[in-house]
Design goal:
2 copies of one chain form a homodimer. Chain A has helices at residues 17-25, 43-53, 56-71, 82-85, 109-122, 128-136, 195-219, 224-233, 243-258, 264-275, 282-295; strands spanning 10-14, 29-33, 74-81, 94-97, 141-144, 150-151, 163-169, 175-178, 222-223, 305-310, 314-319, 327-331. Chain A is α/β, with parallel strands linked by helices. Chain A folds into 2 domains: 1-36, no CATH class; 72-331, Enterococcus faecalis V583 fold (Alpha-Beta Complex). A 5-stranded mixed sheet of chain A has the order 6-8-7-3-9. In chain A, strand 10 and strand 11 (314-319) form a beta hairpin. The first copy, chain A, is globular and about 75 Å long. Chain A binds chain B through residues 230, 233-235, 243-244, 246-248, 250-252, 254-255, 258-259, 264, 267-268, 271-272, 275-276, and chain B through 230, 233-235, 243-244, 246-248, 250-252, 254-255, 258-259, 264, 267-268, 271-272, 275-276.
Amino acid sequence: MSQLFSQSLKVVNAGLNSFAANVQQAGGTVQPLNWQPPVQGDVAAGLDLAQLLRHPLVERANQQAFQRYLDAQPALVDVLPASEAIPAMAGRKLILHAGPPIAWGEMCGPVQGAIIGAMLFEGWAESHEAALRLVRDGAVELQPCHHYHAVGPMAGIISPSMPLWVVENQANGQRSFSNMNEGLGKVLRFGANSPEVLQRLHWMRQELAPALRAGVRILGPLELKPLMAQALHMGDEVHNRNAAATGLLLKRLVPALLSSGLPLDQLQRVCAFMANNDHFFLNLSMAACKAMMDAAANVPFSSMVTVMARNGVNFGIRLSGTGDTWFQIWVTARLPKLRE
Amino acid sequence: MSQLFSQSLKVVNAGLNSFAANVQQAGGTVQPLNWQPPVQGDVAAGLDLAQLLRHPLVERANQQAFQRYLDAQPALVDVLPASEAIPAMAGRKLILHAGPPIAWGEMCGPVQGAIIGAMLFEGWAESHEAALRLVRDGAVELQPCHHYHAVGPMAGIISPSMPLWVVENQANGQRSFSNMNEGLGKVLRFGANSPEVLQRLHWMRQELAPALRAGVRILGPLELKPLMAQALHMGDEVHNRNAAATGLLLKRLVPALLSSGLPLDQLQRVCAFMANNDHFFLNLSMAACKAMMDAAANVPFSSMVTVMARNGVNFGIRLSGTGDTWFQIWVTARLPKLRE
């Protein structure tokens, strides 16, 4: 049948896939489109929705929110313990986690494991079992990072004494926060909580963070957009490829660290830790992006999505105009629970 | 006239440009080709040349030379004073320069200026005038870097006490050498020889080189091909863009330097010097390329070009099969001479 066509066909097929098969048999190329009418086919509700999306109030609000996002100038300004960076964490057994709110019993195993690890790290319990009892008894508060301008990779666990990158949007003074990258292998962010994981976290709190704080304070505010822009040109996407950004950060940080007056053996361990982890910049890019997205938040009537986050069970978004409300639009296949 | 063509024309025009103009007027696209018959139109000589180029001996020799080039594994193995790296320089007033051989009187101003600077740096003369008299009197030997497996950017000046990168082709044990990058601004490689230029060279000899030697010896042989390959993927061309390669080198060198036992204040200055010069890797890539090209040299009958170099006046090449012979195929418009 292909001779019927005077030239090769490229077809978009919206609807039943069997229509696509016919075109393919006849020698055409088909791009199937998984489409369904909006609002499950409720025409009146669909027209209402369309009206809302193109409403002048919404359009103006979105332009304003997007402009605030573009105007954001995230700069690395400090390194602080979480309880200082986020005063609400001081003196409380509060642990922050990735994604939208979720109760302990609903959490996936890796997030639960990371929370147990953070409790052991904080000294709130002496053993895995004791920590488990405490958290089951409700003695530990669990809240999303996003409720405190914070982010963290994977499980995203932040406990009060963990050191945080402090990023400030120099356009509005708002600060955002992220924990620090532990490297690859067994790490808290994937739910590991063995002694080697906790030992590394202790070292990061005791040696890495004070050195970075000293270095960052010597550097002064370090604008992150130009650094990330250069890294993007160098092949990073600043998520899973951070080799260039980490190198550019090191070029700035190392001379500052060396003039910090800290002991040479500490600087050796700190520089080796950073130089051996191409992902070291990741958490800083997350905090920078958080600062930029938070700049767009809370513009009345704006439908701009300012948060997309998951906790291993639920995926949620927040819109600028609806403030702190979470919309949980997906429930994923659940990861295995913590073995008990 | 364009309606005469059933489709748009794309024409290659070899010969008089006026033919091209006609096609352009008629709506066609022309790529002019600046072509002339080989050997100035001597048909017999042209055929001889063609025979030679496709001679089985030449073809086999070229394959062998090219394979040696591909097999080369340049590794940074040491940092040494030129007089140790190149024993022929010890105890002689010998200065190496860029490009093919050239007498003092024929040299361009920047190369002459850099030679005067190197003589002052070596302490062979107390003043610019005294240095000029010495070199005019023939008291200083001037030879190409390429005669000693060495390279250097721009004027390419190497004098006996300058520190050199030592790169070894681990496939054949042959070493190649380059001086070190001074950064931007007033620098010897562009012919500057003012006190600030000489002061920097003294610092590089006294502080930078010993630190790099210590760091390189701690690191052990550092293979340069993988590092350069990664830098190429990160947007460097490892000539005028070396930001990625310099960063990758720093990631390796800094931890080694910090464990060298050298004084912290020296390490501060050394790390700051490297971190502030995105071109720092350049000279190392030059030495690595020299090692790879030298691997292909001296294969009898090979017509592979193993050296292309200029000294500001002449441009010369060397072929593998013709060994040390220079073919000077271009005389450039001359740069201004040194003011006297």
